[in-house]
Every structure is written in structure tokens, then in C-alpha cells.
Design goal:
This protein is α/β, with parallel strands linked by helices and 496 residues long. It has three domains: 277 residues, Rossmann fold; 101 residues, Up-down Bundle (Four Helix Bundle (Hemerythrin (Met), subunit A)), CATH 1.20.120.640; 55 residues, no CATH class. It has a five-stranded antiparallel β-sheet with strand order 5-6-7-9-8, with helices on one face. A four-stranded parallel β-sheet has the order 4-3-10-11, with helices on both faces. α11 packs parallel to α13. It is elongated. It binds one RNA strand of 76 nucleotides through α1, α5, α7, β13 and α10.
Length: 496
RNA sequence: GGCGACGUACCCAAGUGGUUAAGGGAAGGGUCUGCAAAACCCUCAUUCACCGGUUCGAAUCCGGUCGUCGCCUCCA
């Protein structure tokens, strides 16, 4: 069994992931709150978890991957202490963009669909389960009742709170073990005088005015932000999970609170390995919703950028390093994705359609051995705390080895196919799998026929050495976004 | 106030004790081509912010200086 090493926030070391069942990884990754379109920073995190799955599968592991959607509008300051801010979703509904929605439920549904759409376009693997907070209300209420019963939570006139002092190890993940520092950390949060400790966090908030509310043993209200992940992780993965991840901001308080709730409830370790993704920066600066200096995935795709190039750009720097995303990075990525596609086109010319799906393993000939070695180096880089920079360099190295061969033999093409198929499975950046939305596919059919007519026309002109006409046609097509390439086997075209 | 990251060529960036400091972009030259495009080939850091130290040996370890940035609050 091969080792898959990843930095673990809890032990603060890079260590091999251990799975409770051999070869079966149980992984929970915190998803977004759906009150707006997801931005590229969100996706740096989700892409990182996607790479964990791909890497695990590349060494033959089964992965049960749970990634939730938070569709309850939690309070904006319900983090360390309790609630006092506005509801995120209510805020979104009240904003200009919110006018199109009848209510918060409608809004959550809309952005959840948009999110899954972006997810597919960036070629992320579909989770085994994608649970929603609103669909697990009963379980959350039961969990809160259980914590009260076990003496870890108590009711006040404003809600139900988890007693931080009842859980010795509170703070072990984030290092916020020093109660004095905790006081500093919670300084700006509005306090509830009925709480036993200002750091106690909400499990249930009483509020019969809230836009989303449920009936509970404590009256009308809604659940605290942290309890949903504890409940859903346990429901789908069991009391102890192998790996849990999310953005670096979730370390404290969110994951700290998840640990406290879960372990206080079950008496068992909640999770053996924690990973956190460092925030993405844009043009050298932190991006955030409140600053408004962010790109959504949609923004960039609407500007015509290739979704796979966006994926490439977002994973090109290892996840624990600060990554300064720029438009230039994205443009650089486009060229490289195009190189994978070019290699794919050459292979398809020999093996025909379906070559990627039917690609086999490496052979024993020289090219097969060379590509096999390069792929192994890339895989090893991924197994060493997801070194995507090296893995991508290896993907390009192998692709160049394929492109270097001016005339591929059938055996060469098969080796190349094996390489590209493995790279695609591991990194998802070759652009050889269509991620376009289905409705966009109808039009190119007709368009393609029109282009073919012009290409034939131009070939005629070229044959007659009428270069004025042939160049005119090429220029017109270029202006229309169609790029022509004359190859020994004839003219091929691609959309730019 | 607490915690942490980073500073490598024009740009992005890997490398964290030892042969030639990955890879990509840009730039320059070349092959191919009617010309292009694409692809391929070649060139492009004796040097890793700065100053000391440890060591046979450091971009890599230690100390200091300067600079940039992030998390702890909404946010992945």
C-alpha cells in the first residue's frame, strides 16, 4: 500500500493519511453557504479537495467523499460567541441582486444550482453525497438535545449554547487553548449575559422572526452554524472520519467547534487528519466578499476564459502556499491546456474517437517506459502533500515527449493515450473531457459545417496558388474566432 | 494582542544540507510553412532579499535586519 502524505493541522506535521478501513478514505469537506455565486477563492479550496480524491484514487483507494451545501442563513457573527449580526442570506435577499427571488429558500436554491454548475464546468468530481443543512434539521435538533443531556450544553432565553468549559480539549486544533487569548478573540462579538462563558457558541438560536425557522424543543428558531457539519459527517461517514478539510478560515472557530460538539457527543475522536487550504490572493491582495475585489467563476467564464485553464491556474501553486492569482497566470494556463489538447488531437487522428476512454496501461517499449517514469514522478509529487507545481511540470514533460514525435505510430499513440488518460484522471487539466453545458453543444454542429465549407474553399485556392483568396478566408475566420492550422494531413481548425 | 506564511531570472513558480537551481510565460535565434498558426529545437539565474553564524559543503539549518502578505471578524 502506497503512502499519501498530507499536512495535518492538528499535529502540525506532514504525515501519511491513515484510513480506518484499509484502502477506503472517508473524507468530509466543508462546502459553501449559497447566498451568492462562488468565487475563485472558494474553488481553490474545492479544487484542492478534488485533488485529494483523484490522488487517492490513483493509488487504488476507494473514496467516500461528503461535501455539504450550507443553505441556512447563519448569523454573520455567530462564530465564537453568539448571534448579533445580520443573516447572510437575508442580507443577500435584501440586496439589489436579491430582487429576483421570492424568498430566501428560492435564493438558496438558485445559488446552489449555480454552484453545482460551476463545479462541473471546472471538472470537479461529484461527491458521493452532497447533503444540505436544511434537509438534516431533525438530526441537528437531536444532536443538540443529546449534548444538553450529556451536560455539554445549556439553554438560555436566547438559545442553546455549547459549554466550552465542559470540553477540556477545546482549542486543540487552532492553538487557541489559552483562555486569555480566547477572550481577545471574542472581544468584538456581542455577548449574551446568560452565557456561562463568553466563548460558548450557539447550537440553537431562538428567533421567531428569522426568515428560515423550524420548531424545536426550545421553540421556533434555527440551528447554529457548526452543528450541521458534525451531524452530516457522522451520518454519512461514521463517528470517526479519516480526513476533514476546508479553507484556512474554518480552522477556528468552525472546525474547533465541530470537534468539541462531535467528541463531546460520541466520546470518540471525530477526525484523524485535518487539512486547510491557504487563501487565494488576487493581484497581490486578499480577496473577500466584503471588499468586493473578487472574481466569480462565472465572471471569468463569461469573459471567454477556458474553464479548464481556470482550473489549471488555480491549482498551479501548492495549496499551502499563498497563491497570487492574476489574469496573466490564467492566460499562461490557456496555452498549456491547449498543448494537452494538441497532443490529444494527434492521438485521436490515429486511434479514432473514444481513445481516451479506452486507453490502457503503459507498454514495455521505450516511449511507454519513458512516459511511465514521468507519470510516476508526477504521482509521487501529489502523494507528497499535493505538490501540484511538480505534478503539472511532469504532465507537460510527458506531453512534450509525445509532441516531439513528428509522426506517431499506432503504438506511440497508445502510449500517449495511456499517459494523457492518467494525467487527466490525476489532475483533470488536459481539457480532453468536455465540461461545457449540454445546451451549448447544439450550435457548433451547424457552425462546424459552415467552417468546413470555407476551409475547403481555401484549400482549393491554395492549390491554385491563389494566396490572396486563401489569406482572405483565413483572416475572416480568424476574426470570427476560428483558428486554422495547416498540417501535413490537411487543414484543421479550432475555436479560440 | 495572539498565530502563521513568504521574499528564487523580466513575470508566475518548484526545490528545505551535497552531481548541471524543476516547469510555465515573456523575449531572442532556428526547423517546418507560399506566408502564417501550431508543434519542435536552441539561448535565457556561478546564483537564491540583506548581514552574520554552524558545516568539508547552505537557496536549504541557526541568529539578526529589511520588505510583502495572510489567519484569528463576514469570508473557502
Amino acid at each position: 500500500m502506497r503512502e499519501f502524505k498530507l499536512y495535518d493541522t492538528l499535529s502540525r506535521t506532514v504525515k501519511p493519511i491513515t484510513t480506518s478501513e484499509p484502502g477506503h478514505l472517508k473524507f468530509y469537506s466543508c462546502g459553501p453557504t449559497v447566498y451568492s455565486y462562488a468565487h475563485i477563492g472558494n474553488f481553490r479550496t474545492f479544487l484542492t479537495t478534488d485533488l485529494v480524491i483523484r490522488t487517492a484514487e490513483a493509488i487504488g483507494w476507494d473514496v467516500t467523499y461528503v461535501s455539504n451545501i450550507t443553505d441556512v442563513g447563519h448569523l454573520t457573527q455567530d462564530d465564537v460567541a453568539d448571534a448579533a449580526g445580520d443573516d447572510k442570506m437575508a442580507k443577500a435577499l435584501a440586496s439589489k441582486e436579491g430582487d429576483q427571488f421570492a424568498n430566501v429558500w428560492d435564493l438558496a436554491r438558485f445559488y446552489a444550482v449555480a454552484f453545482e454548475d460551476d463545479w462541473k464546468r471546472l471538472n470537479l468530481k461529484t461527491p458521493t453525497v452532497r447533503p444540505r443543512a436544511t434537509e438534516h434539521m431533525r438530526e441537528q435538533i437531536v444532536a443538540v438535545e443529546d449534548l444538553i443531556k450529556k451536560g455539554h450544553a445549556y439553554e438560555t432565553p436566547t438559545g442553546v449554547y455549547f459549554s466550552v468549559d465542559s470540553f477540556e480539549e477545546y482549542g486543540k486544533l487552532s492553538g487557541n487553548t489559552d483562555r486569555e487569548n480566547l477572550q481577545v478573540a471574542v472581544r468584538d462579538v456581542v455577548q449574551d449575559d446568560n452565557k456561562k462563558n463568553p466563548a460558548d457558541f450557539a447550537l440553537w438560536k431562538k428567533d421567531d422572526k428569522h426568515l428560515m425557522q423550524w420548531f424545536s424543543p426550545w421553540g421556533w428558531g434555527f440551528p447554529g452554524w457548526h452543528i450541521e457539519c458534525s451531524v452530516m459527517a457522522q451520518k454519512y461517514l461514521g463517528d470517526t472520519i479519516d480526513l476533514h478539510g476546508g479553507g484556512e478560515d474554518l480552522k477556528f472557530p468552525h472546525h474547533e467547534c465541530e470537534i468539541a460538539q462531535s467528541e463531546a457527543g460520541t466520546g470518540k475522536p471525530f477526525c484523524n487528519h485535518w487539512m486547510h487550504v491557504t487563501f487565494l490572493q488576487v493581484e497581490g491582495e486578499k480577496m473577500s466578499k466584503s471588499k468586493g475585489n473578487f472574481f466569480t467563476v462565472r465572471d471569468l467564464l463569461e469573459q471567454g476564459f477556458d474553464p479548464i485553464a481556470l482550473r489549471y491556474a488555480l491549482i498551479s501553486v501548492p495549496y499551502r502556499k499563498p497563491h497570487n492569482f492574476t489574469i496573466q497566470t490564467l492566460k499562461d494556463a490557456e496555452g498549456n491546456v491547449e498543448r494537452f489538447r494538441e497532443a490529444g488531437r494527434r492521438i485521436e487522428a490515429i486511434l479514432g474517437e473514444g481513445w481516451l476512454e479506452s486507453a490502457g496501461d503503459f507498454g514495455s517499449d521505450q516511449l511507454g517506459q519513458e512516459l511511465s517514469g514521468i507519470y510516476e514522478q508526477g504521482l509521487n509529487a501529489m502523494l507528497d502533500d499535493l505538490n501540484t507545481s511538480v505534478a503539472i511540470a511532469k504532465a507537460l514533460e510527458g506531453t512534450k515527449a509525445i509532441l516531439r514525435i513528428s509522426s506517431l505510430s499506432e503504438s506511440d499513440a497508445k502510449e500517449g493515450a495511456a499517459f494523457l488518460a492518467k494525467v487527466e484522471a490525476l489532475l483533470g487539466i488536459t481539457g480532453l473531457i468536455a465540461t461545457q453545458e449540454p445546451e451549448e453543444e447544439a450550435e457548433p454542429e451547424i457552425e462546424g459545417k459552415l467552417v468546413s465549407v470555407w476551409v475547403t474553399e481555401r484549400d482549393e485556392a491554395k492549390k491554385n496558388k491563389d494566396y490572396a483568396t486563401s489569406d482572405l478566408i483565413r483572416n475572416k475566420l480568424t476574426a470570427a474566432g476560428i483558428e486554422l492550422r495547416d498540417t501535413p494531413d490537411g487543414t484543421v481548425w479550432a475555436k479560440r
